[in-house]
Amino acid sequence: MAENTNNNEYDVLVIGGGIAGEEAALNLANQNFKVILVEKDLSLGGKMIHLSKVFPTLDCAACITTPKVSETARHPNIHIFTYSEIENIEKKSEREFNATLIEKPTYVEDNCTGCQLCEEKCPVIVKDQYQWDLVGRKAIYIPFSIANPRIAAIDIDNCILCGACEKVCPADCIDFTQIEKKSQIKVKAVIIATGYNLFDAKIIKRYNVGTVKNVITSMQMERQLVPTRPFNNVLRPSDGKMPDNIAYVLCVGSRDETVGNPICSQVCCMYSTKQAQLIMGALPMADVTIYYINIRAFGKGFCEFYQQAKGMGVEFVKGKVARIEQGEDENVILRYEDIIKGTVQEAEHDLVVLSVGILPNTDYTGFFKNGGVEQDKFNYVKQTDELLSPALTSINGVFAAGTSTGPMDIPDTILSAGAASSETASYLRKAK
Amino acid sequence: MESPKILVFSTEKISDPAIDLTGLLKKYYPSTVYTIAIPCSSAVKPKWIMHAFEKGFAGVFIAADGTDCPFSEKCTENTGNIVSHTHEFMKEKGIDPARLKMAAICSVCTDPFVKHMKSFLKFLTENKEQKN
Amino acid sequence: MKNKIGVYICHCGSNISDYVDVKKLNEITAKIEGVNIAKDTMFACADSTQKEIIDDIKSNELDSIVIASCSPKLHLETFRNVAIRAGLNPYNYVQVNIREQCSWAHSDDKKGATLKALQLVKAGIERVKRSQALEPIEISSRNVVLIVGAGVAGMRSAIELADMGTEVYLIEREYFVGGRTSQWNTLFTTDETGEQVIKRLYKKVISYKSITLFTGAEIVSKSGGIGKFDIKLKIKPRHIKPNCELDWKKFDKAVSVCPIEVEDEFNFGLTKRKAIFMNYKSEFPQIPAIDTENCNRCGECVKICPEIDLDQKDEILNIKVGAILLTTGADPYEPKKDEYGYKTLDNVITLQQLKRLIELNDDKNLSYKGKKIKDVAFIYCVGSRQEEGGNTYCSRYCCTSAIHSAILLKNKYRDIRNYHINRGIRTYGKQELLYKESSENGDIYLQFFEDKIPTVEKSKNGATIKVIDILTTNREIELEADLVVLVTGMVPRKDNTIAGILKVPIGRDKFFNEIHPKLRPVETVIDAVYIAGACQAPRTIRESIDSALSATAKANSLISKGKIDLEPTLAQIDTSTCEWCGKCVDVCPYSAIKKVEKEGKQIAEIIESNCKGCGMCMPVCPSNSIQLIGYTDTEIESMIEALIS
Q1: Which of A260, C7, C259, C414 lies most in the core, judged by the most C-beta atoms within 10 Å?
Q2: pLDDT for residue B132
């Protein structure tokens, strides 16, 4: 990590430490620009670091993200603030932005060695958000095994202030007196790489999420398939049974006017196809059925990947799922319109995965004091010259990377971040 | 019976990526195939090949750059010369020249690689049985 | 020889440990002579493990490390950096590939995989024992990029590089810039036309002193490499005198007297053009061209237009650049004769032809070959998503492009009815809105599966299409169309000689291939040769621009510093045994060996800045006097021994 520069001045503020923010920050840092990278979460890596393998090459996601994460973390030109947020940004003139940075308290000093002794002693158990609530964690915890920085944090809302962690910590780095820190920074350009949110399937009432057992989201399945997975196998939540008849429901929260998101999320078809292939590997006897409207296998190597899944025996059923209900033995009943047969059918599965779509993360709308960054009609950052300068936004000197401008897969996100870094570099050089 | 061992000389930019891709796509080949990656197939010394036979490898396979060679258009010719020179040495030592093979393996030639390995292994196994 | 070696065996989550008994491997490794530390780790590449390795190196004063994990192509640099940060020479690190070439390749044989992994690790240890500490070779680089192809991706990259302070040669094979985009009318998501987009880019390109544009130009040959390419260009004559003020009236007249008529490729053969031509009036550069291949030198045009010079010859130009960016684009798929009636039925055209047809047709009605068009049937996935052996890939842009054209038809002409005979519409992302709009326009969608493709037959008024529609329970539907539009995908450029000249790898779908779609998406295995846009895979304009701008960032950060560090893998001559024979000089592709006299003896000497470390000189040396650093006899032979042990 870089030494703090004079008066908190940097060339570029990158907001978001996911794969887009890292790629953009690294490109700029390699061109000798000073970068400040602000991540609101406890670790870098964004959503990608939590994935299992990635389509269509089936590389493990960790093998691709962690080197990028550590390269970012130790680059001498990049200064990182995790668990921090941007409160506001004010543009003074070209290449002159003032921003307020908030560092949230973790109640653990940076000299934490990640020994996890505190975790053992902490008496409080809550749901682990990094495992998408599949398992529990303590109130003091290392976010996840490959987190960067890999240091503990206290979840103060659930902490009972018993002090057990403080007593056991060998590095003496627990500090309950930490408070939120505000500071002013000056930058010359801003990159918005704030990523996306996942659709909350509870909004679709007819799917009865939360009341019907054994209905999970694709991210919960993703966690069951990663090498550092919580159960070391694919299990259904109600009784821990290994499922042998799994269904995927596509377009949950995408291409759906009724939930206000008419566009396609661009990745769900492929990640579901990927998960189906991985399930076939983990549970060789299981049947996997994917209920789809159209399979969008459009990228380089995607169509072949889809054919490969079909070849492995993944069942693709063209049909829109209308209702999800509880069946016997804690199984799940899908009512769906089978488009090829032209009839409404019922199917029973012992585990149902909802392939939830991508929604904009609108955090960026609150950043700017005088007139925010313009949004498009879906609340993504509006690309003001979409065809020829896809990273430009309505504010000169503010650039957008990755899924802040719309749904995108990982290869496209990396290219988009590359484009944002190029435009930023040119913008900065114009001053010289 | 232990299956015969094959030493593959692959090239870092062309044929070794193909062998990586073969594994990535889970296209299986015998586990007694071992690879040493070098910059170019025209750099294999006959001395190394002879050393491999001496130490007990049943076969040596040069996964050549062929026309994809990033270094020289003459790569196929040069590698071919190495093979024919080595064949001479092999004959002198009474080693069947068929135990040294070469074929061009392009950077995405996964199926040809597997095919070559399987047929070479089959040949070496049969050959071994005949001798015994 | 090293005797304090650290060995790390990676589980790679479960990618390795599911098939290779890592624990056992680790136990055995720990006992090998020279090994000081042997550890297994969940992810060797994780930051915490990297820190642990550094701590181990420092606290145990390790003299070398071996990491058995994935392919060195992914993480050799990652771990070399670990060594550097621990104060160890990076060349005292050896990576052993037990994933791609072991656990994944032998998942069917766990016992065999474990045994092989052990031998590979042993070979790695033997190799590292004999490794030499090396310093990278620093070479100077030119801050100049050659961009091949002046379509949207090429021109956009040129502008960005110029903005970043890099000099650019931008070459275009055609007489005019703009590539495919100049052929399209209104573009999706903006109301700009292809022409307008190209105009915007061209005006900007020519405003930079640091961009030199050549049209009608191709690469003839390449020598040199990263940082220092020497490129020979051939520039076709335009047959118009330089710096003349062209009189457009005279030009129009010259066109009219030209006796040569050839198929107009710009309009995909819908029209003819003369040997003296411009594809459209506002085309750039704003100078017509006479194509040498078709001109018969009759001289009629010269009589009208003295600015024409039929004696101009090919020009050869040598340029020096530091990096090369390929933005050569793609071709539309050309259907086979009689594929859905193509070229055998009068009213079957491709999507690209339709786009030109809309552009050329200004009437209130659309007509083709004199016939008024009312019912238009689009047949999708022509030339894409074919069976194994054909183009198995999806061409990505065509669903959106076809629907966009259908909407244009509706908006521009009266009484148009569109039928979309598709294999599942792939309007991904925000393009979904077009699909919605077209459905709301009343367009009819019919869907077929690949095993039951539609047929097109001649009928009285046009064509009859029969399709088994899965959206209406597999009913066979027969419909009449005045115009059948084959939605043809993208294929790699027909003429791809440049790939041969630059040795750019071609992927399984025949497009140029990147090193890794996520880690290094714009780089090729040829150092300092980058790819962007549709030459890499089918893409939309925006996606092409994203990749073009990514490539500019990478190229600029490589060459703009003036110097580049290269691998110090060089050939070395043993002067005591070399008996000059010259065989090594004959075989060296880089003129990197010369004859010198030392102590009264003629011997060979390596010119280090030219040597690329290919090793071709080694096997031809009759006295075995050449060793390649990193691949010496002792290293290779000890590895062979370890593998057979």
Answers
A1: C7
A2: 42
How many other C-beta atoms lie within 10 A of the C-beta of residue A92?
9
* A152 — pLDDT class (breaks 50, 70, 90): very high
CB of A43 closer than 8 Å to CB of A60: no
What is the C-alpha separation between C289 and C175, in angstroms, rounded? 7
Domain that holds residue B28: 6-127
The predicted structure's pLDDT at residue A274 = 97
Which regions in chain C score pLDDT beneath 50?
Answer: none
CA distance C508 to A303: 13
**Quick check: A295 and C15 CB within 8 A?**
no
Token code pair at residue A381: 């950052």
Helix (H, G, I), strand (E, B) or coil at C76: helix
Q: Which fold would CATH assign to domain C332-491? A: FAD/NAD(P)-binding domain (3.50.50)
DSSP for A135-169, please give it. Answer: SEEESEE-S-TT-SS---EE-TTT-----HHHHH-
Set of chain A residues whose Cβ sits within 8 Å of the Cβ of C542: 386-387, 390
pLDDT given at position B67: 75
Nearest to B72 among C100, C108, C589 (CB): C589
Instruction: State the average pLDDT over residues A14-38.
Output: 97
Contacts of C123 in chain B (CB under 8 A): 34, 36
Tokens coding A340: 């090829």
- Residues with Cβ within 8 Å of C552's Cβ and at least 6 positions away in sequence, in order, are A422, C157, C160, C161, C164, C325
Mean pLDDT over all residues of chain A?
A: 93
- Whether the CA torsion A141, A143, A145, A146 is positive or negative: it is negative
User: Is C640 in contact with B26 (Cβ distance < 8 A)?
Assistant: no
Per the CB < 8 A criterion, the answer to whether C129 and C93 are in contact is: no
The domain ranges of chain C are 5-136, 144-236+314-329+503-563, 248-304, 332-491, 570-628
pLDDT at A4 > cutoff 50: no
C637/B48 CB distance under 8 A = yes
Q: Which residue of C has its CA nearest to B53?
A: C640
Chains that touch C (3 or more CB pairs under 8 A): A, B
Q: Which residue, C80, C234, C245, C219, is CA-closest to C148?
A: C219
Please give the average per-residue pLDDT across B28-37, as a whole number.
96
Is the backbone peptide bond immediately before A262 cis, with ω within 30 degrees of 0?
no
Please give the Cα distance from C148 to C324 (Å, whole number): 8
Asked if CATH classification 3.50.50.60 holds for the domain at C144-236+314-329+503-563, the reply, yes or no, is yes
**pTM confidence score:** 0.84
Whether the pLDDT of residue A5 is over 70: the answer is no
Tokens coding A303: 């169509």
Domains, chain A = 6-102+181-195+361-429 (3.50.50.60), 105-179 (3.30.70.20), 199-358 (3.50.50.60)
Per-residue burial over C526-540, b if 16 or more Cβ lie within 10 Å, else e, is bbbbbbbbbbbbbbb
pLDDT of residue A89: 97
